[in-house]
Amino acid sequence: MKLAVALRLARISLLPTVWTNVLAGIALGGGTWADPRLPLLVIALSLFYTGGMFLNDAFDREFDSRARPERPIPSGEVTARAVFSSGFGMIAIGWCALAIIGQKLSGTPTWAPAIGGLCLAGAILLYDAYHKSNPLSPLVMGSCRMLVYMTAALAIVGSLGTDVVVGAVVLLCYLIGLTYAAKNEHLNRVDHAWPLGFLAVPLVYGAVRAFDQPLVLLPLAALSVWVWLAVRRLMRRGPGDVPRAVVSLLAGISLLDAMMLAGSGQVVLMLLAGGAFLLTLRLQRWVAGT
Questions:
Q1: CA 97 to each of CA 16, 44, 159: distance values in angstroms, whole numbers, following the listed order
Q2: Which of 164, 237, 268, 289 has its Cβ near the most Cβ atoms within 10 Å?
Q3: Residue 117 gets which letter from DSSP?
Q4: Looking at domain 3-284, which CATH architecture does it have?
Q5: Sign of CA dihedral 60, 246, 194, 22
Q6: CA atoms of 233 and 244, how far apart (whole Å)
């Protein structure tokens, strides 16, 4: 498989949003970015993401042959078998890394990270295999990112505190609104606007958090403007507006993570998340995020 094909299958431009998810999950749990297990954790969850994206193309190959024939499998650049094998292989390696973190690198051996990884793998497979016919697929997709928060916290902190759970639910709501828009991307229209209301949940959460931590106002303002611009495109429905709105909202995941990090008092990590947002936008010019 050529590198360029692999990068397209992986939607590599969105990988920085996974890294900021990991940082946000750890910070919400009360952990620290200086933990020596962090590099392996980032690699593990990056493999889950990349493997899931490979499987998404593999399961969607028949739909893509009709609606997106330029994708790697229908265009003949790679076989479905190779993509399936690579996708399942990356998720398996990622799970093994989570097991190593819990069993070998933690003070007290625990299966918590591996259990989180199993739940994440199940959500990824459920979404990839059935998202075209499942009306609840936005919820399933959101649960994938939510489980990244939770698995990161379990790997470094060893437990799920209230802040992690609440933050994960907020991220879930954002992904529900985003995924609903993405499901309609090939139609270049959004038939019903009410699911987009889930995108407002992080803004409300940030406004509440700002009372205790004014630093949240900076990423909250950026996220608010970004979501408004994306929703405006969705409602305008001009040529290409929906795809552009979707990739904008995908990049906005890192802005949401920056808000979570600011709420945890992590100034440096908040700035890094902002940098990841800019990096995602830059990479999207090279490799499409959808």
A1: 19, 6, 18
A2: 164
A3: H
A4: Orthogonal Bundle (1.10)
A5: positive
A6: 8
